[in-house]
Each structure stands twice: as structure tokens, then as C-alpha cells.
Amino acid sequence: MKILTLWFLAVACTVLCVKEDPSVLQPEPTPEARSRFAALDDVRLLANGLLQLGQSLREFVQKTKGQINDIVQKLNIFDRSFYQLSVMASEIKEEEEELKKTTVVLKANNEEIMDLSFQISSKMDNILQEKSQLQNKVEGLEEKLSSLSQGLVTSDQVAEINSLRDVIHSQEQSIMELLKAVREQSDQLNHQRTQIKMLEEKVTSTHQQETIEKVPEMFNAEAPTLTTYLTSHSTNSTEMMNLPSDCSELFNRGERVTGVYVIRPNRSQPFMAFCDMRATVIQRRRDGSVNFDQNWDKYVDGFGDFKEFWLGLRKIHSLAAQGNSVLHIQLEDWKQSRRFIEYRFYLDGPESNYTIHLTHLSGDLPDPMSNHTGMMFSTKDKDNDNHQDDNCAQNYTGGWWFNACGETNLNGRYFHMKPKGRSERRRGIQWRQGRKAAYSLRFTQISVQPLASGSAASSTSASSEAGLFV
């Protein structure tokens, strides 16, 4: 653009200089053409050059303005981005400071809990020493009593010795209760200590994790069958000893993914179990893909896949034999109303046909299972119910702890559509109380977990809808 401008100026200057400078050698014009003004063609040429120069200058100015506006916009965007980055940096610094403060608080709480645990252990040692001293005193008093009984002892002395013995016995009982309470407090402190460690791990991690609703994705894949562990590979004794006793121990070790794991409860033969976080699932019904009308041996050993299965009475007994077990029952009707109930739970061994013992703890379901506590397990080929004339397992299908025959059977027939006949409806998956009409449920899950964590995940699974459970 500058070259074009200079070129036009040079042309104009040349034309004017040639026309007005008399020193330039030119042919002598004729008298008629001589004039003091420039020729008209030269003036037009100069005007056109100046016009083009003005247009070029205007375009150059407009283009420069557009480039300046673009630069200004980019600078504004850069300023906004830099401001946002500075705000995010300040927020990250604040969160980092809060995390540091939380970590300090958690460490302080952990130290306090360690001090309390140490104090409790020292108190327990003192109580045990006092107990041994009291036992020694009791033994000495018994020896004195025996020596006195050989001689002449008055009735007043005998009464005094008996009252002293009663006092010592009551003191021993109170000491035993105190020891039990101290042990429970120690267990609670240890549980809180593990929770604090888990919180510390969450605080130190930059991205806090996922959720648990991976179960539907897992069930869409092909589930492993309920076969005995160690069939595809061998393990040594050290690996066998390191296997968790149940899913709650696996949870305490830091495992947070719902799925199938190998457990070894009560030093039994290892087997595969479905762990719903800390709960060991022993029964699951969801789509009717597995027939639950099986014989006694099948119910003892277990059947199905981990989409829909019965774990097996032998394995359930090994879980319950560890003590302090909670039976968690979760039900869902066809209106997708999900509720639960929990029992203190124990299961006898095969010598008692796996008699069940239940004590109601909590939940938002009615409690028909209270009429089934103390009952032996029954199947169509092994009748252990209280009905003298009929076999409840044969009439209602599926193995269960039938009474005569009772109001619940979660191992009944799975119905996708409501049967027409009343007798057929009673063969379904039942959970009712009183004289309510039979209704087959859509989903059931029975799990076992320790008493300390029994109510931890209970309330989260209950639906707000009333459904057919009321």
C-alpha cells in the first residue's frame, strides 16, 4: 500500500514538474498550444490516482480497525479466562486448606481413640487381677469353711459364711458384666478407629470415588456358577488362612466393589459368595430364571447362578456359626416399592435339620417370620413342618422353614403374571401377615452380616411408597 501511494505521488510530481519547469528541454510548442495550465488528460490522470489512493487508504484504515477489534476481543477473552483460572486456583487452595484441617482433626481423634483403647486395656488388666485375687480369697474362704465344718460350727457362723459367699458371688457377676461392657466398648472403639482410617484415605485421595450401582451391569454379564473353590487352581495353607471369613471382613479390608468373592467362614471349606458391600447374600430372586422347587440335597448344597440363587444351608450355617449375625431381608413388589426387615439370626446344623432362630430387630415390613422361628427346614422330599396332614413344601413349592404352613415363603414359584386361582397364587413368593390375599413378589434378597453393621445399610434401601406391604 505504501509503494502504491509513493508511485502515485511520483507520477503527479513528474507531471507537474514537467509542465511548469522551463529548464527541462522540450520541443518548442506551437504558439497555439502553449498554455500556463496543465493538460486536461494529465489532470484526469492525477485525479484518478488520488481517488484510488483515497479508496486504498480507507480500506487500509477499515482493515486495521477490524484487526484492532479482533485483538481487543481476544484480550478480553484472555482476561476472563485468566480471572476464572485465578478463582479456581483460590478455590482449590481453600479446599486444600480444609482437607488439611480435616486430616489434623482426624489424626487427633485417632490419637484420642488410641489413648482410650490403652486405658480400657489397662482397666481390663486391673479387673482381671482383681478377679484373680477375689478367686483366691474365695478359695481360701472355702478351705476355711471346710476346715470349720469338720469342727463344731454354730448356726450363726454358718449363716454368716453363706451370706459372705453370696456377696462374693454377686461381686463376681458384677465384675463379669463390667468385663463384658468393657469388651463391647473396646470393639466399638476399634470399629471407630477403622472408620477414621477409611476417612483419612478418602481425604488424601484427590478424586473421591464412584458408587455402587454396578450391580445391574454385573448381572448382565455371565455370572459364575456356585461351584466349590479350588477347582481351577490350588492354594497353599498361607493363602487359605488369609481368606476373609465373610463379606464384612472383606469390607473392613478396604474392598468396596459389589461382586463375587471367595470366603472361608468359621474355618470351613472355601466357597464363592456374592458380596453386596459388607453383606453376604444367601438368596436372591429377580427374574424367575432359576427353578426353586428343588429337593433336600440341592437346598443343602446350593443351586443357581449369582443372578438368581440359593447359597446352600451348609454354607449359611457356617456363616451363622460365627455368632452375632443379622438376617437382612429386602423385598420389592411390582410397584417397585422396596422395604426391609432385620432379625437377630442363628441356624442350627444338619443334626437339627437346620432349625432357624430369629429375634426381630428393625425394619418397615410386617413380621410374619416370628411364627417360623424354631422351625426346621423342609423340602418336598423331606417334610419337617408342623402340618400333620399335608407337606407344605410340596403344596406351596420350594424349600423353607414352614410351620403349618405359615404366611411366608420366599422360595416359592416366581410368577410374571398374576395367577387366576387362589391356590395357585399361594404357591408364589409370599410375605404376608394375617388373612391378606396372596401376592407374589417381584424381587427378594436375603443376606447375612455381623450385628455391629447390621443396620448400617438398612434404611437406604427402603422405598417411600407403601405398595402392598402395609
From TrEMBL:
Keywords carried by this UniProt record:
Coiled coil, Signal
The coding gene here is: LOC115436539
**Protein name stated in the entry:** Angiopoietin like 3
One GO biological-process annotation of the entry reads:
phospholipid catabolic process
- Give the record's GO CC terms: extracellular space
Q: Which residues form the signal peptide?
A: 1-17
Residue ranges constituting the Fibrinogen C-terminal domain according to the UniProt record: 238-452
Q: Name one Pfam family in it.
A: Fibrinogen_C
- Organism of derivation: Sphaeramia orbicularis (orbiculate cardinalfish)
Tell me where on the tree of life, at the top rank, the source sits: Eukaryota
Q: Which InterPro entries match?
A: Fibrinogen-like_C, Fibrinogen_a/b/g_C_1, Fibrinogen_a/b/g_C_dom, Fibrinogen_C-term_domain
Q: Which residues form a coiled coil?
A: 92-151
